[in-house]
Amino acid sequence: MTDDSKRFHLQLPPTDRILSPRTGWTRAHWEAVADQLLDAVVPYASPGLARYDLPGRPSWSGVRSDGLEGFARTFLLAAFRIAGAKGEAPPGLIERYADGLASGTDPSAPDSWPVLTDCSQQMVEAASIAIGLHETRAWLWDRLDSSVRERVVEWLGGFVGKRTWDNNWMLFQTVSEEFLKSVGGPYRQEEIDRGLARIEEWYVGDGWYTDGGTRNFDYYCGWALHLYPLMWTRMSGASGEVYRDRLHTFLTTYQHFFGSDGAPIHQGRSLTYRFAALAPVWMGALADASPLSAGQTRKLTSSVVRHFAERGVPDARGLLSLGWYDTFLPATQSYSGPASPYWASKGFLGLLLPPEHPVWTEREQPLPLDEGDVVAAVPATGLLLHGTRHDGLVRLVNHGSDHGAPPDDPHYARFAYSTRTGPDHGTAADNHITVSPASPRGAIHALTCEGRTASSYYETTGGDRVTTTSIVRGPWEIRVHAITAPNGSTVREGGYAVADASPPAVVTGAGWALARRADGLTSALIGLYGWQRATVVRDVEANAFGPHSATPRLEADSPGTHVTLVVLSGDAVHPTALRDAIGVEVSEDVVEITFPDGDTVSVARS
To answer: Are 84 and 352 in contact (CB under 8 A)?
Structure first.
């Protein structure tokens, strides 16, 4: 049995409900969390303080690289803390990382860092070190011994002439070589420019970039493709007007990726970075490029970090584990090592804003979801958001992001995601439609995305075609599927998977099924046309939100047209009443949906 007295517990200042009526958090809370995250990794430091060898599954890059990752990513957090305090950081913090820089760049030291090679993980970490050195120049870089500065320049200079992956990694070279340029080190201007030029080809509109040219839309757009160009402007002095304009546009819809309780939508890769998702929100304030007021910025950012803090993050050791709330390896990637979660340091970018900045001094203000339901379409990406004020939930309908169509990746292949559910990694096939014997959702071909409607199609490996239109209203999503497949093919569709510490309650009826968590969160799937059977699929240890999960499912014995009502709500859900209240008329060419208030939407059968 664990001795609870030895468990880590965040120690936070008293809440301030005058300045921050919604979260109670102030800058002092942010500083306290940052300081405790930095203190908790000290026991895992190498003798020379150049590596932090944290416990957990190693990455594919090996333990030496993982230790560098521990240094670089925590250094980024330390840099924001040091610079934001104008050097008045907690005792020993500057010296600790100065010692680590000296040892890590000394080839004779036992904890020296691996050199930069083509497409090596060291490139990622070099960018964090470069940014950290730039932001702390007056308090760290300028005070290093000249011999240490020379070694740091030599190590970072390994970037020059090297090849990066053709994605956000190109920006790591841009910022690293820009820092080298600023301190008289080696650099190639064409390599600095190359990354900035490359992302122009990836800009798709509505403030969004794809990462690497495929239909890859996720948090990397914010914590990499918006962040690094604007960090580059801080190094270079360039105006960056185009990057600020795009970030402003991006944040108009990105602000809706978070529930009113601060929970981020659980979609995409590298989710173990958690509150790194706040990086573009803080950058909006830092670069004067945000549609949010200062009070809204603090409300949103504080809500997110507080959300995780209230759910066991950091863990009982004081560490950020590989997972979401708790350790959950299926939500990680092969490149994820024990220190990878510390890219969450980007979520503390706001500490660079001085204590007298309005984001810290103005009273918190509500966001749109705090005052009413929201619907936000991002046409360039095929993503459609709908959030409901009464339960604070946001749902993301996905008709555009497929990450280059890997085989049925749960974090990209689903029709919908939310702030309170995660995709199952078992056999439930939540928020997916299959045509027997199996039909993973491959490349998503976006068709429309505007207002309350989005649509797309995909083709199965067997040549079948599934075209789906989603119509959102409040907590509801109606999906109209047109399935071209051989007669006799079995069709199955799943709703949201709800997960909890104990098995969710499940109920089925004629043409509907639902699963309910102990806190009342309910996932329901209601057949409005074309479905014949309903069931609920259970799984264990397959979901980041809890060990027990349950997914409503509908089945039919033939393809053709199928209409489904998908519900995820904190309210009670009454499937029979909903089915009776929503009208569906199917003609040769059109499916007509009539809502309880009389509003009608027509969808072509194609």
So the answer is: yes
